[in-house]
Design goal:
Blueprint (H helix, E strand, L loop, with lengths): L5 E6 L2 E6 L10 H16 L5 E6 L4 E3 L12 H20 L5 E5 L2 E3 L1 H8 L2 E5 L3 E3 L13 H9 L1 H10 L2 E3 H7 L4 E3 L4 H12 L4 H13 L7 H12 L3 H11 L10
Parallel strand pairs: 2-3, 3-5, 4-6, 5-7, 6-8, 7-10
Antiparallel strand pairs: 1-2, 8-9
Helix pairs in contact: 1-2, 3-4, 4-5, 8-9
């Protein structure tokens, strides 16, 4: 599948999506959101891909925000529809993928860019990264899940301050608050991220997918996360991965898990 705004590769079990709009600081527009959805869908169905990394082209920006020119004249109904479609098509879609998605945040991750990174299962930042939700400075609020995911990651008070001041935080501040897991030099970002992806790939794909489902359940209204965990714990016992993992442990060897 060919894309206009993104570059997709798959090698050694790792799928990589690079948002390739450097002239626009990789800003998200409707076309790019659709392409990202299609790319994630394709990589999830690719049995050779075990982990997905998303990053931005160049050193300046992961994603510097949404493409404001597309919605500056929207009505109330059009604005609500934009947020609803974007959340369903991309942001919630990423969060609920059964394959791990890591955001390699290089440079600016603002507005929709930070929301995209937060939809991923975790984040690694380059030391020049700047992150924020500046929407209120434009007379609007985050619409792609930012008001929900940011408090989950860094706490209500810090999230309120970031959103209301429209300010940016550095990579180190993001690390201290729990917004990002690691901070590394720009030149080492992708290699470091691939190193973590390689560690993930040693483990059971089925179990990882179920773990993602269970962790997400804790943040969903009306869903009992403990019951979800119990149910999915039980399902693991009926898999070849469980048989291989326990057998390998007892035989004192490394497990060789399936790609399913």
């Amino acid at each position: 599948m060919s894309f206009e705004n993104i570059i997709v590769t798959a090698e050694n079990g790792i799928g990589q999506i690079t948002i390739n709009r450097p002239a626009k600081l990789n800003a998200l527009n409707v076309a790019t959101i659709q392409e990202l959805h299609d790319a994630f869908e394709n990589l999830e169905s690719n049995s050779d891909v075990r982990v997905i990394i998303i990053t931005g082209e160049g050193e300046k920006a992961f994603v510097a925000g949404a493409d404001i020119s597309e919605f500056a004249s929207f009505t109330i109904q059009e604005g609500a529809q934009l947020a609803a479609q974007g959340q369903e098509l991309l942001f919630n879609f990423i969060e609920n993928l059964r394959k791990p998605v890591i955001a390699a945040v290089n440079g600016f991750a603002l507005g929709g860019g930070l929301e995209l990174a937060m939809a991923c299962h975790f984040r690694i930042a380059s030391d020049n990264a700047k992150m924020g939700l500046p929407e209120v400075s434009l007379g609007v609020i985050p619409g792609y899940g930012g008001t929900q995911r940011l408090p989950q990651l860094i706490g209500k008070g810090r999230a309120m301050e970031m959103i209301m001041t429209a300010g940016m935080v550095s990579a180190e501040e993001g690390f201290r608050s729990g917004l990002v897991n690691h901070v590394v030099p720009q030149s080492e970002l992708l290699d470091f991220t691939r190193g973590i992806a390689s560690k993930i790939m040693r483990n059971s794909p089925f179990a990882i997918g179920r773990a993602i489902k269970c962790v997400n359940a804790n943040f969903k209204d009306g869903v009992n996360g403990f019951e979800t965990e119990i149910r999915n714990f039980g399902k693991c016992f009926g898999t070849e991965d469980f048989k291989e993992g326990t057998t390998a442990f007892l035989e004192k060897r490394k497990a060789e898990f399936s790609r399913k």
